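Could you please review the protein record set out just below?
***
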Amino acid sequence: MKLHLTLLATFAIALCIVQAEDKPKTDSKNMKPEVVRTTSEWEKMLTPEQFAVTRMRGTERANGAAYHEFEAQGEGTYYCVCCGAELFTSKEKFHSGCGWPSFYDSSKAKGVLEKVDNSHGMHRVETVCKRCDAHLGHVFEGEGFKTPTDRRFCINGVALKFVPKGGEAPKLLEVNSAAVQEKKGEVAKEGGVEAKK
């Protein structure tokens, strides 16, 4: 009997390990954004609509100006309007008819993080910029679109900065977290110089 219970316990532990390994590698609960700014700093950097969407988790109006601009854009890359991280390319772009920019996948740069969103009495998956935690929109699966992934990243156009193919990528916003500043101080101290603030 003891052998049977031991084997059963071993099997249960092995099953838990396999299931844990099958979970997405991006555990958003433990991930901290690299770029951190105060609310007032973000407000100074962004337009009121960009701030409301990206920092306050808002949603732009469907079929708005940003959507019509998106529909007219050709080949290029889409970057985070807050920090400049690469998020999507025109290769993953498709017309879904939903009134917001749609992509079937994020770019190979892997700058998009997916988080569980149970707000407003709904169960959804929120998409955010992995680098600065800017709210981008949501991702939906199994809607029947004839795309390679059958996923639809429904993204707020004001959260994106488009750069046409061959154009210069935006400068990445400098990392300014307390941990980075502490590390800069340590390195400067070891080098015998005063760290710049």
Residues 1-28 have pLDDT under 50 and may be disordered.
